[in-house]
Amino acid sequence: VYEYLISKNYDSIAEKYLLWRRILKKHPIIILIGGASGVGTSTIAFELASRLGIPSVIGTDSIREVMRRSISRDLVPILYESSYTAWKALRIPSEVNDKDIHILGFERHVELVLVGVESVIDRSLKEGLSVIIEGTHILPGCLKEKYMKMPNIITLVLTLSSEKMHKERFAARAKITSRPLERYLKHFEIIRKINDYIVKKAYEHNVPVIENISISESVEKCLEVITERFAYLDKEESEDKKVALKNIKSQ
After folding, report:
1. Which helix (H) or strand (E) holds 114?
2. What angle do CA 19, 206, 156 make, to 5 degrees?
3. Which of 93, 156, 207, 240 fits 202 for a cystine, CB–CB 3.0-4.6 Å?
4. How far apart are CA 76 and CA 61, in angstroms?
């Protein structure tokens, strides 16, 4: 593949290809893709998995479903709501909180599902398997600090600034899935509020925010961020090797 790319004068792409191969062979890479319902986290996740050769893509909605099997509705009712209806299951009256009730409900929902997300990350790191985890529950700043310090865990956030385009995405999705358009449009104002909140948290924690208007362009932007991180890992390893060789020679 490398030689073919070179023959076609795609030198920079060829170098990126080798870099991806080196890193993915040595490290389990965990890519976290967050964003409100309907902005396209699933689509981008599968495109990235195909480009990078990562075998597993897991949605946080799937993790939530697994958790529902082991935790009863009576015990944790908020887990049985969607991210944009979680506020309905809050036990604390909204007036005692400074935060918007919809955002408060969303945060409580995220906190529960992140327990499952962190378990998937731990399993991936232990087995040395790369994975992409996508969904609304990837909220920057909410994972344990130890994960955020790991260079092989990469977080990205997708958004759609245009409300019109956001509604159109729901309509397009309803045509090919069983997800009812009416439900999303009914709660659209809350979903937009969650979108803005996720983006705000991303900027606060220096997480790249990508406007997902064009799938191909969004994938390229994601790959740029990922390649930068891979280059950093590659550089660190090279420096570690130099230090190790220097120590051996001195001994």
Report:
1. helix 101-127
2. 55
3. 207
4. 16
Report residue 108: phi and psi, to 5°.
-65, -40
Q: How far apart, in whole angstroms, are the C-alpha atoms of residue 52 and residue 243?
A: 30
Identity at 203, one-letter amino acid code: Y
For residue 133, pLDDT over 90 is answered with yes
| Residues 117, 182: Cα–Cα separation, whole Å | 29
Q: Is 190 exposed, middle or buried (0-12, 13-18, 19+ CB in 10 A)?
A: buried
pLDDT digits (tens, 9 = 90+) for 29-76: 999 999 999 999 999 999 999 988 899 999 999 999 999 999 999 999
Q: Are the C-beta atoms of residues 135 and 60 closer than 8 Å to each other?
A: yes
> From CA 111, how far away is CA 236, in angstroms rounded?
33
Token code pair at residue 119: 């378990």
Distance CA 178, CA 162 (A): 24
Q: Which residues pair with 33 in a beta bridge?
A: 134, 156
